[in-house]
Design brief:
The complex is a heterodimer of chains A (about 300) and B (about 350).
Chain A: H1 19-52, E1 55-58, E2 63-66, H2 70-78, H3 80-111, H4 118-126, H5 133-143, H6 150-157, H7 169-198, H8 201-209, H9 214-225, H10 227-242, H11 246-251, H12 263-273, H13 277-305
Helix pairs in contact in A: 1-13, 2-3, 3-7, 3-10, 8-9, 10-13, 12-13
Chain B: E1 4-13, E2 16-26, E3 31-35, H1 42-50, E4 57-62, E5 65-66, E6 77-80, H2 92-102, H3 107-120, H4 136-149, E7 154-158, H5 166-183, E8 186-191, H6 194-200, E9 203-208, E10 211-216, H7 218-223, H8 228-233, E11 240-243, E12 257-260, E13 266-268, E14 275-284, E15 288-295, E16 300-306, E17 315-319, E18 326-328, E19 334-335
Parallel strand pairs in B: 3-8, 3-9, 6-7, 7-8
Antiparallel strand pairs in B: 1-2, 1-4, 4-5, 9-10, 11-12, 12-18, 13-17, 14-15, 14-17, 15-16, 18-19
Helix pairs in contact in B: 2-3, 2-4, 3-4
Classes of the chains: A mainly alpha (about 300), B alpha+beta (about 350).
Chain lengths: ~300, ~350
């Protein structure tokens, strides 16, 4: 009698590793490269900077002495330049963030709907974002020269005597902020365009049917729905404004009369001009805490509002 | 309440004409449903009535007043959108009050009107919730509530039930019908679901390719379709269309097609009906079976049969009362029996 065909039985022996452990191993395998990069290039340097900030370490003499929190107390209580630098950074951020966001939103509203040539306009406003910071700064340095500068010549045509933008302490900050806004506004514009296009058109149609004006639609519907995007933009722009270095270095070198000396540039000067690595590290940690604090405040405000 | 008149209404997007001359009269307090296949222009026509789309040609009148150039908010219409379009950052109360607020109605009056609308739709317990905290049916009711708060003259519904599951759709359908009875306001309702159209409408407007194919009561459309398109669009399952030669019936002059509704056919002995065939397949649906009969001429005919149908492969005849048969001419237009 022929034997009936049978389905081969699965091996009933328990596997060496449970399914959960095998899945965990796979997860760690995928996470590994990113985690290694994070530890080597972010967590490691951060811990190192915390350590350096508690030393008096001159890069030239290669002598390092543990001084505890002395660098922090020196910056916060003894060095008057520190508060000037913080003030300049705050002015830079307060000038740049609202101007950048307002301009980005205005451009996004204008360019979020299709019309002939819209891609050209979007490209024009986004192009500076991908332009070399060095080239951008050098070009603007020429444009903003005293009487011979293009900007002042244009102002002269309409009867305005422009200042020497980069040589006067108050105007230098204005000029640096303005050129930075023009350079970076395209990035936020793109983020706002994406957010505006994600708002269903039916909301506007419904509001219009109910009698809302364009301004009421913007304040009552569009702006609140842009909230999450606005928060992201505000956080990244604030962080970017505190980290600004290239613009200052190339356009004003922190001057005139320390009028544009901001935190990131001061850290560079302390570390690589005066070789005070310990003090520069302490400044870097203070900047980290300021930026982290501002970000947390922004997140908390946003959470409260929703 | 208001009457609505459309005369020669057209709509062009660039070179494409999507509404090609629509004439329609909607009476005060009437419930009119626009039906048609996707892309026939029914939603576009509704948005033109709302003022959300420009009118390329023709006249739109509300209570005799020309509305072509009047702003949406000043037409006295309210619309319930397919997506509901509830503002996600506002509570139900604020959603319903939004229109009153932008029109400058005082806060106490706003609250009073919202409460009244909420009572009508049993939304009182939901007023402080956000749209994300509501079920599909509740969102639908809020959308309707937002529309009735403004006390419009005409309600416009753009496929409002299409996002709901079948059971909820039936329930909301009856709520909308009850609301119409209670308010007595003119309502224009767009759907591609002919059951919705049949159950809700005082009159149905069947649209195809931007043109009105037929306007009539559900019964008129079902029993006396003007043409093949309407005959097949109205009724479920759809009407069987066969060549006149396939049936043993005297055809009127000019008829080339014959229409037999599945529910009008009955299974009889072979040779005893108007046509013979073989059962291909029967779908049991509970109360009835839908029997697919392959005819000797090669066509397939659907028959609604009470209870179980005959088994697959059974040889059957199909009978039908002569008065229930519809005839169509070469161009698809209905041909009368006499």
């Amino acid at each position: 009698m022929p034997r009936p065909a049978t389905v081969p039985m699965a091996n009933d022996d328990p596997p060496w590793l449970s399914l959960k452990m095998r899945e965990a191993m796979e997860a760690w395998l995928f996470l590994g490269p990113t985690l290694a990069g994070f530890l080597i290039f972010f967590a490691g340097p951060l811990v190192a900077v915390v350590g350096y900030s508690m030393t008096e370490w001159n890069l030239l003499s290669q002598q390092s002495t543990f001084v505890g929190l002395k660098n922090y107390s020196h910056a916060l209580t003894e060095n008057p330049d520190f508060w000037l630098v913080v003030r300049n950074s705050a002015i830079f951020a307060l000038g740049l963030v609202p101007a950048n966001m307002a301009l980005a939103l205005a451009l996004a509203i204008a360019l979020s709907r299709p019309f002939r040539g819209v891609v050209v306009f979007r490209t024009v406003f986004f192009a500076p974002v991908v332009t070399s910071a060095a080239a951008w700064a050098i070009v603007w340095k020429f444009l903003l020269q005293g009487e011979a500068g293009f900007v002042n010549q244009m102002l002269a045509y309409v009867g305005i005597a422009g200042p020497n933008w980069l040589r006067e302490p108050n105007w230098a900050m204005v000029a640096v902020i303005a050129t930075r806004v023009i350079k970076m506004v395209g990035l936020n514009m793109i983020l706002y365009i994406a957010a505006l296009q994600a708002i269903p058109r039916d909301y506007e149609a419904a509001a219009r049917l109910e009698g809302a004006s364009s301004w009421q639609i913007f304040t009552g519907i569009t702006w609140p729905l842009l909230g999450p995007t606005t928060l992201v933009i505000m956080v990244i722009t604030t962080i970017g404004s505190f980290k600004v270095f290239d613009h200052i270095y190339l356009m004003t070198g922190g001057g005139p009369e320390n009028g544009t000396l901001v935190l990131a540039f001061a850290i560079y000067e302390q570390g690589f001009k005066f070789f005070n690595v310990g003090y520069a590290s302490a400044l870097a940690m203070i900047m980290f805490v300021i930026v982290m604090g501002l970000t947390l405040v922004q997140l908390a405000v946003r959470r409260r509002d929703t | 309440m208001a009457s609505l008149t459309l005369r020669g209404i057209t709509k062009r997007f660039g070179r494409t004409e999507v509404i090609r001359g629509v004439d329609l009269d909607v009476k005060d307090g009437e419930f009119v449903v626009f039906v048609g296949p996707s892309g026939c222009g029914k939603s576009t026509l509704l948005r033109m009535i709302a003022g959300l789309e420009d009118i390329s040609g023709g006249e739109l009148r509300l209570d005799g007043r020309l509305m072509n150039e009047v702003q949406p908010a000043k037409r006295g219409v309210a619309m319930v959108f397919q997506s509901y379009a509830l503002y996600p950052h506002l509570t139900v109360r604020d959603n319903m009050a939004f229109g009153l607020k932008v029109r400058g109605v005082s806060l106490p009056d706003r609250l009073k009107q919202v409460e009244a609308a909420a009572d009508t739709l049993k939304l009182g317990a939901l007023l402080d919730r956000y749209p994300r905290e509501l079920s599909g049916g509740q969102r639908q009711r809020v959308a309707i509530g937002r529309a009735i708060v403004g006390e419009p003259q005409v309600f416009l519904f753009d496929e409002p039930l299409s996002n709901l599951d079948a059971e909820l759709r039936v329930h909301m359908r009856s709520e909308i019908a009850a609301l119409h009875k209670r308010l007595g306001t003119t309502m224009i309702y767009v759907t591609h679901d002919q059951i919705e159209a049949m159950t809700l409408a005082d009159r149905i407007v069947v649209l195809r390719d931007g043109l009105v194919e037929q306007v009539g009561t559900p019964r008129e459309l079902y029993e006396n379709p003007f043409n093949l398109f309407v005959a097949q669009f109205i009724g479920s399952p759809k009407m069987n269309i066969l060549p006149v030669a396939a049936v043993r019936l005297p055809a009127p002059a000019g008829a080339v097609k014959v229409g037999l509704r599945p529910e009008d056919l009955r299974i009889v002995a072979p040779g005893a009906g108007v046509v013979d065939g073989t059962v291909v397949h029967a779908e049991y649906t509970g109360a009835a079976s839908l029997v697919h009969v392959g005819l000797d001429g090669g066509e397939t005919c659907l028959v609604v049969c009470q209870g179980d149908g005959p088994g697959d492969g059974a040889r059957v005849g199909l009978g039908c009362e002569v008065g229930r048969v519809r005839w169509f001419g070469d161009s698809g237009q209905a041909v009368s029996q006499s």
